[in-house]
Amino acid sequence: MINTKKIIVVLPAYNASETLQKTYNEIPFDIVDDVVLVDDNSTDETLLVAKELGITYILKHDENKGYGANQKSCYIKALSLGADIIIMLHPDYQYTPKLIHSMAYLIANDVYPVVTGSRILGKGALRGGMPVYKYIANRFLTLFQNILIGQKLSEYHSGFRAFSKEVLIALSLEHNSNDFIFDNQMLCQIFNKGFEIAEITCPTTYSSESSSINFSRSTTYGIGVLKVSIQYLLHKKKLMSFQIFK
After folding, report:
1. 63: exposed, middle or buried (C-beta count within 10 Å: 0-12, 13-18, 19+)?
2. What is the CATH number of the domain that holds 40?
3. Mean pLDDT by 10 residues, the chain (246 residues)
4. Considering the domain boundaries, does residue 30 fall inside one?
5. Pairing outcome for strands 85-88 and 57-60
6. What would the DSSP string read from start to end of the chain?
7. How many domains does the chain have?
8. Which range marks the domain in which residue 198 is found?
9. What is the reported pLDDT for 208?
10. How far apart are CA 38 and CA 164, in angstroms?
11. C-alpha separations of 32 from 10, 105, 221 in Å
12. Which of 42, 70, 142, 159 gets the most CB atoms within 10 Å of its CB?
């Protein structure tokens, strides 16, 4: 705990057996109270590794529901366990758990209600092996999103995020997509509710075991990102209404 606030790390897992142990071993248990892993019907030994590591709370989807659905299960379970601060960490070791201290303290001391690890601040992305086409797409999408949404984030696509429970309770996550666009819908919901987001520089490690989506799905994701940003703009201008912002 920090300032009597219970901290839970959630791991949305899919085929993470090769990297789960390395990720788990770097979680700072001097402040983290519990870990929740949700397995999205992996085809490898993710569940076995999780049990061997002694992760207390392990949930398994009976079918592959998608990245967004995995996060929904993670947050529901964490809140049911009484979490005050929830850290979402990918178990593929793309993001270092060593930043959990910094992210959690910002929330525990009421500096910011949401903190994300940015691969774009500094040179962490390219130095860590992010494919050049993904880096360029990230920069263009972020530029357009900042214009449409009216914010100044360095990136909207990081998968390393920390939330206060008040933020998660305030969002209508059940209306969001079960796919990768969930992350962007969530950020727009956060801004819509008036919460601020802090960013910290995050080194990144890309490897053959890192989670990734192919070019075709990346294109679909990019189109979805722009669609969500336009929906947010139309909602704020009171021109249209969308379920995710209700």
Report:
1. exposed
2. 3.90.550.10
3. 97 97 97 98 98 97 97 98 98 95 98 96 81 89 96 95 98 96 98 98 78 75 95 97 94
4. yes
5. unpaired
6. -BTTB-EEEEEEESS-TTTHHHHHHTS-TTT--EEEEEE-S-SSSHHHHHHHHT-SEEEE-SS---HHHHHHHHHHHHHHTT-SEEEE--TTSSB-GGGHHHHHHHHHTTS-SEEEEESSSTTHHHHTT--HHHHHHHHHHHHHHHHHHT---S-S--S-EEEEHHHHHHS-GGGS-SSTTHHHHHHHHHHHTT--EEEEE--B---TTS----HHHHHHHHHHHHHHHHHHHHHHTTS---GGG-
7. 1
8. 7-131+154-210
9. 61
10. 20
11. 11, 11, 32
12. 70
Residues in the chain, total: 246
Torsion angles phi and psi, residue 188, rounded to 5: -65, -40
Model confidence, pTM: 0.94
Residue 245 domain flag: no
Tell me whether residue 145 is in a domain.
no
Q: How would DSSP label each residue in 160-213? A: -EEEEHHHHHHS-GGGS-SSTTHHHHHHHHHHHTT--EEEEE--B---TTS---
| Residue 217 covered by a domain | no
Residue with tokens 């525990």: 108
77 and 38 in contact (C-beta within 8 Å)? yes
